[in-house]
Design brief:
This protein is of the alpha/beta class. Helix content is 45%, strand content 11%. It has 3 domains: 5-287, Aldolase class I (TIM Barrel); 293-406, Conserved carboxylase domain (Cyclin A, domain 1); 452-495, no CATH class. The chain contains 22 helices and 11 strands. The structure holds cobalt (II) ion. Cobalt (II) ion binds next to loops.
């Protein structure tokens, strides 16, 4: 029997989920030779929130980190998480920017592009998949797992088949909230294995305590690879730990080969990352390390629950916690049962709070309007027609059914001119980062030429809900203006 392959996420999701994405390149490099020698199928080393957090908080130019990690771990394929047409941001970008980003990342050595869309709309993944393949790299078509009346096993298998037809090199089931039950995993993986001829990979989180059992079920069903991390950047809200998974698979015919030398290297890595974790105590929290069964009860990512508690307390609305939670499925259903992952987890969370605070659908966030009107893509089920009508009336915008990026004009030329006018480098690397993080890139260069300044307390608001206030956790605070009233909203990255 073919052993299951383990990917390692300690350099990306491990610290994104447990330490606010704050591990810096210098903390990663000493571990790279050992990580590279352990026989992991891939090292997830970049993408997701690391690009934003690296630039914003750690003052690292993203492509410099990729170069350094590739040099330090040259033998194992490197993998990144890419939000389809959103790249690593919250809004859609034109095709030429998506293609330039993928091509540039490929040039810097990225091997595997794990491409997902928060709505599971394959049209939003098409450009990134085609770009990765054009660059001679692997494009993995990714299915965001969620539960709803329309998210049946058959629907997930159909989506997997569609992504395979689009040329994906593998299908990934991405269970960003750790909600997928082992029995469901078994059915979806078995179905996909029968239906598509490419490898099936699985990514989950141990948030609700299901992760290791879920992997076991997937391995029984023939999954080709699963993601593990290394403690203390493992378990809890991150991926199951590698050594732990090896124990779970003891005497299993598909257990990967980790002889005594590799086990020793793994435990050395645990000690190393233990010291890094201790150094990062400002960004870690005990609540992320322990099993949180509330997340199963409410079927929402754990991060959303803690955000609601903080947020409602700030607004003196603690007693409305249950009410807001009950509103989440109402909002999801009205918006076509969208999965909860960055950025939809934020959008649904904010709208649920607005519905409870101000009355159901009395106010829409700009992002909820865009979802209702099709500007994020096709929702898994139709949007409630009354909510769609209200969204159109409130915004004066027309609903669309085309692929949203078809409405966007090429932008690389403008980006280059903008960088030129600011006196910044105008290569592709800077253009794609400037497209997503203009203020952060400008600040990065300003601070390089002057003594470090404290993190800004407040900056301006943009229509795409750019995070405006940072806090030393996974949370970001947004300020939203609704009918002249200012609301502070806490959100959290879920991936
Ligand atoms: Co994840």
């Amino acid at each position: 029997m073919t052993p299951v392959s383990f990917n390692n996420t300690v350099l990306r999701d491990g610290h994104q989920s447990l330490a606010a994405t704050r591990m810096n390149t210098a903390q990663m490099l000493p571990a790279c030779p050992q990580l590279d020698g352990l026989g992991f199928g891939a090292l997830e080393s970049w993408g997701g929130a690391t690009i934003d957090a690296g630039l914003r908080f750690l003052k690292e130019f993203p492509f410099d980190r990729l170069d350094a990690l590739k040099k330090a771990a040259p033998n194992t394929p490197h993998m990144m998480l890419l939000r389809g047409q959103n790249i690593v941001q919250y809004a859609n970008f034109p095709d030429d920017v998506v293609e330039a980003f993928v091509t540039t990342a490929a040039k810097h050595g990225m091997d595997i592009f794990r491409i997902f869309d928060a709505l599971n709309d394959p049209r939003n993944m098409a450009c990134a998949i085609a770009s990765a393949k054009k660059a001679g790299k692997q494009a993995h078509g990714t299915i965001c797992y969620t539960s709803s009346p329309v998210h049946t096993t058959e629907a997930f298998i159909r989506l997997g088949a569609e992504l395979a037809d689009m040329g994906a090199d593998a299908i990934v089931i991405k269970d960003m909230a750790g909600l997928i039950p082992p029995a469901v995993t078994f059915r979806i993986v078995s179905g996909l294995k029968k239906c598509v001829k490419i490898p099936i990979w699985l990514h989950t989180h141990e948030t609700a305590g299901l992760g290791a059992a879920t992997y076991y079920a997937a391995i029984e069903a023939g999954v080709d690879a699963v993601d593990t991390s290394i403690v203390p950047f493992a378990n809890g809200t991150a991926q199951p730990d590698t050594l732990r998974m090896l124990s779970v698979l003891q005497d299993h015919p598909r257990r990967p080969e980790f002889g005594p030398e590799k086990l020793k290297a793994l435990s050395d890595l645990q000690s190393y990352f233990g010291r890094v974790y201790a150094d990062m105590s400002a960004f870690t929290s005990h609540k992320n390390e322990v099993v949180d069964t509330d997340t199963l009860l409410y079927q929402v990512p754990g991060g959303m629950l803690s955000n609601f508690r903080t947020q409602l307390k700030e607004q003196n609305m603690q007693d409305r916690f249950e009410e807001v939670l009950r509103e989440i499925p109402v909002v999801r259903e009205a918006l076509g049962w969208i999965p909860l992952v960055t950025p939809t987890s934020q959008i649904v969370g904010v709208q649920a709070m607005l519905n409870v605070k101000l009355g159901r659908w009395k106010n829409f966030s700009p992002q909820a309007i865009d979802i209702a009107l099709g500007y994020y893509g096709q929702t898994p089920a139709p949007v409630n027609p009354d909510v769609r009508k209200l969204a159109a009336k409130n915004s004066g915008k027309d609903p669309i059914t085309c692929r949203p990026a078809d409405l966007q004009k090429p932008n690389m030329g403008n980006l280059r001119r903008e960088l030129e006018s600011k006196g910044l480098p105008t290569d592709e690397e800077h253009c794609v980062i400037h497209a997503m993080f203009p203020m952060e890139l400008a600040t990065y260069y300003k601070e390089r030429n002057s003594p470090p300044a404290p993190e800004p307390a407040t900056v301006s608001v943009s229509a795409s809900a750019a995070p405006v206030v940072s806090s030393p956790s996974r949370q970001r605070k947004f300020r939203m203006e609704l009918e002249g009233v200012s609301h502070d909203v806490l959100v959290e990255e879920v991936s």
